[in-house]
C-alpha cells in the first residue's frame, strides 16, 4: 500500500562513533555441545560447553510437559553431547531431543531453502494465503 506524504523539513543529526573493537575480537560459537541439563516447573534449562544457556518451555515438548518431574530427571546425554535421551527401558519417557532443534536453522537447512527455485516458493506462498 502506498500513501502520499509530504516531505519533512526536519533536520536529522547523525552521530558517528569510533568502532571500539574489530569483529575479529569477538567470539562466535562454532559448535553446540551440552554441558548440563536441569528442570524447574516450567522450563528445561540447558547449559552448553561454550557458556550459552538455553531455557526451553516444557509445553513445547508434550512428552516432558506431561511427565512426572522425577521421570524428567532420568535422561542421558549422548556421547557427542548433542542429544538428550530418555530411554523407555529406564523411565516412563520415550524421547530424544537434539540441541540443534532449539538453536535455529542449521546452515544446511538455510542453504537448502535458498536453493529452492523462486517459482516453487511463490506457489507455496499462494497456497498458504
Explain what this protein looks like in three dimensions:
This protein has 129 residues and is an alpha+beta fold. The chain has a domain at 31-103: Uncharacterised protein PF10387, DUF2442 (NE0471 N-terminal domain-like), CATH 3.30.2020. The chain has 4 helices and 6 strands. The strands form 2 sheets. Strands 1-2-3 form a 3-stranded antiparallel sheet, with no helix packed on it. The protein has a 3-stranded antiparallel sheet with strand order 4-5-6, with no helix packed on it. The radius of gyration is 23 Å and the shape is elongated.
Quick summary:
With 129 residues, this protein is of the alpha+beta class. The protein has helices spanning 62-65, 69-72, 107-114, 118-128, and strands spanning 34-39, 43-48, 53-57, 76-77, 83-86, 95-98.
